[in-house]
Amino acid sequence: MSDACTVRALTDADLRMVLDWRNHPAVRSCMLTQHEISLEEHRNWFVRVKEDKTRQQLIVLDGAHTLGFVQFKQVCQGGIADWGFYVRPDAPKGSGKKLGQAALAYAFNALGLHKVCGQAIETNVASVAFHRKLSFAEEGRLREQQCIANQYYTLICFGLLAKDWQESQLKQDQPNASN
After folding, report:
1. Residue range 96-124, pLDDT digits in tens
2. pLDDT the model gives residue 177
3. Dihedral (C-alpha) 122, 165, 7, 12: value to the nearest 10 degrees?
4. Which residue ranges form the domains of the chain, and what is each CATH number?
5. How would you class 48 by CB atoms within 10 Å of its CB: exposed for 0-12, middle for 13-18, buried for 19 or more?
6. Single pTM value for the model
């Protein structure tokens, strides 16, 4: 796989593939809503979101290989958006980092966002570490905010400013920078 990833809009042709990823047990277990989604429910979701100008539904590719799905949802004016994502369940090791970097570059460069916000269930250690590795700052905790299978979970809130993203990219570009 290449170092440069591309980002493109989700299309009708992608729906079955993305639904299969979303319903995979490894992906579904990390989501705030963990039920298995039907094709009809998925299609209805897509009809709603593709007309919403405040949302971006995206596929990230590494060459011809799909890495995963990313969405940005504007939560307020001024270029601040929530993001959500998942990597294709059988993607090679390192795909998450590539997906995150490509998606954030798209958010800050193509969409011109000022800030990207994310949340992770406290027990999702991989997602918490992923946000931190991408230079997100922990901005708070919503105690027992999400009920999943009759158990309440704390959500960890993250934020990444465009200026902090740019600074982290400059550090990565320097010789002997640690990634």
Report:
1. 999 999 999 999 999 999 999 999 999 99
2. 53
3. 40
4. 5-173 (3.40.630.30)
5. exposed
6. 0.88
